[in-house]
Amino acid sequence: MLGEQDLGHRIVVRRVVGIRAGRPVFSDALGELVEVTDSYLTLTTRTGQLRVPITEVHRAKRVPPTRRPAADAVIEVELAADEAWPAPTRARLGGWLLRAADGWTGRANSALPVGDPDRPLPAALDAVERWYTDQGQPPLVTTPLPLAAPVGAELDRRGWDSRPPVLVQTVGLTVLTTPPDADAGAAVIELVGAPSDEWLAVAASRKGGLPAAARHVLTAVDQVRFAHAYVDGALVAVGRGTVTGQGRWLGLSLIEVLPAARGQGHATALTRALGRWAEAAGATDAFLQVEQHNTAAVALYRKLGFVTHHTYRTRFAPG
Please, which residues bridge with residue 250 across strands? Predict the structure, then answer.
């Protein structure tokens, strides 16, 4: 039988769905395993979450991983993410994006090497280093994998180091906005077009302050909502949602629950509320970025149906 070690993997479950002429009738379900208990398995399938009682399981096993996402799919998500987190200072190097925001967050202060830089790779990276030096900032390069593997190899040759890997995860909004039972959390959720001072204070404490460039990154998106969760009038959680990528993608960021209110379902309720807003705006899918070692967040997003689309690393020059 499957166990905790199989969470996050694609599995196929053959289950008994009835009896016909004295013989069992079977049905197969394919999806990502998101929960295992003594009573049931929960899968995220193409049509939503499916809870299968253990008593119905005839056989369950892992299936080989699917083919890695095509380059075009990785580029689509990365460009939607860039649009959702817009650096105030920007330039292009062919198809590559150069971004600076006074050093606030790696995403807004790194080159994004998607597309053709219109020159040989070593010359392109030389140009990246010069551009960031002109900005008075250390050069950073975000390398979506496996798309930017050649860039990563050249940076290895130059002795560049790496920050921890980040998972870029996606889910269909029909999965995100349809909880298996009842929506979690007892907070009142408010979605507004501008962040309150309390919201900004929570974000500043998480990100080490909010310079002027940070305000631009947070607000300079046409379709954006700042989520506030209140219990008895007190703010207990915040989050941010954007709709970008030609209206397809909800981007989730800065989902934060205050320490005293954690474990009560507020992050789940807040995330689903942003999902319903994005659905009403015409979006069909959601993405987020979470550090691989943030196991609590990864577990939460797994239960909400998110699966890893691709990964990236932020690379930085020696010294």
Answer: 243, 286
Domain boundaries defined on the chain: 4-62, 71-163, 168-315
Give the pLDDT of the chain (319 residues) as one tens digit per residue.
Answer: 677 677 767 788 888 888 888 888 888 888 878 788 888 888 877 666 788 898 899 888 887 765 556 889 999 999 999 999 999 999 999 999 999 999 999 999 999 999 899 999 999 999 999 999 999 999 999 999 888 989 999 999 999 999 999 999 999 999 999 875 454 567 899 999 999 999 999 999 988 889 999 999 999 999 999 999 999 999 999 999 999 999 999 999 999 999 999 989 999 999 999 999 999 999 999 999 999 999 999 999 999 999 999 999 999 998 7
One of 2.40.50.100, 3.30.1330.60, 2.30.30.100, 3.40.190.10 is the CATH number of 4-62, namely 2.30.30.100
Enumerate residues 6+ apart whose C-beta is below 8 A from 47.
174
User: How do beta strands 307-316 and 166-172 pair?
Assistant: antiparallel
CATH topology of domain 168-315: Aminopeptidase (3.40.630)
